[in-house]
Design a protein that fits this description.
The protein is mostly helical. The protein is built from ten helices and no strands. Helix content is 77%, strand content 0%. Helix 2 packs antiparallel against helix 3 and helix 5 packs across helix 8.
Length: 195
């Protein structure tokens, strides 16, 4: 961590540049997409706040530990399939709101409520044919684990974008922490229901 905090501007820029270069080659991203991501680099000011320094450290660790690479790789690969999977966006929003309430109430993701929410998520919210395409069968423990992984990976990408905003001196999205907590809670509920 000390090395990360002591990086020069050039070293920080190189870390981000190399990360997006590697991702664009690996995922065959368009030049426009890569240029857009490159333009959204973190720019730590000369006298950063402690929150900006903490956000930079966390962002650099995400890039170096591979979790963001994995999330982006899987997100890009499965994006079209995931769009088709949602049967009813309004139902998905309602289930997300209920999961947020359970999360904020401190409810255990492995509780009956967690199970009921994941059952509704996999049976009512998602298109059965596309869920079945994940493992050859509809709603199985393996499908639930895959859905949990997708939610967790989505939370990593959202978190990266939020850290980027903070480093660049912009306010974080107003409800991002609640949103990330809900995604992680729902992912844990899906994993628990897959046991």
């Amino acid at each position: 961590m000390t090395k990360i905090t002591q990086m020069s501007d050039n070293e920080r820029n190189r870390l981000i540049y190399e990360f997006w270069e590697e991702m664009s080659e690996e995922l065959d991203l368009s030049l426009d997409f890569t240029a857009g991501m490159q333009s959204m680099r973190p720019h730590l000011p000369d006298t950063p706040s402690s929150a900006q320094v903490e956000a930079w450290i966390e962002l650099a660790e995400m890039i170096q530990d591979g979790s963001l690479r994995r999330a982006l790789r899987n997100s890009r690969k499965d994006r079209e399939a995931r769009k088709r999977m949602v049967r009813d966006p309004s139902l998905q929003r309602a289930l997300s709101e209920e999961a947020l309430q359970a999360c904020e109430a401190g409810e255990d993701p492995a509780s009956r409520r967690g199970r009921a929410l994941t059952d509704a998520y996999t049976s009512d919210c998602l298109v059965p044919a596309d869920v079945a395409a994940m493992s050859g069968r509809a709603d199985t423990p393996e499908v639930r684990r895959q859905l949990a992984d997708q939610l967790w990976e989505g939370s990593r990408i959202d978190h990266y974008m939020n850290l980027l905003r903070m480093i660049n001196g912009k306010d974080p999205h107003p409800h991002i922490n609640r949103h990330l907590a809900m995604l992680e809670w729902l992912a844990e509920a899906l994993r628990a229901s897959a046991q």
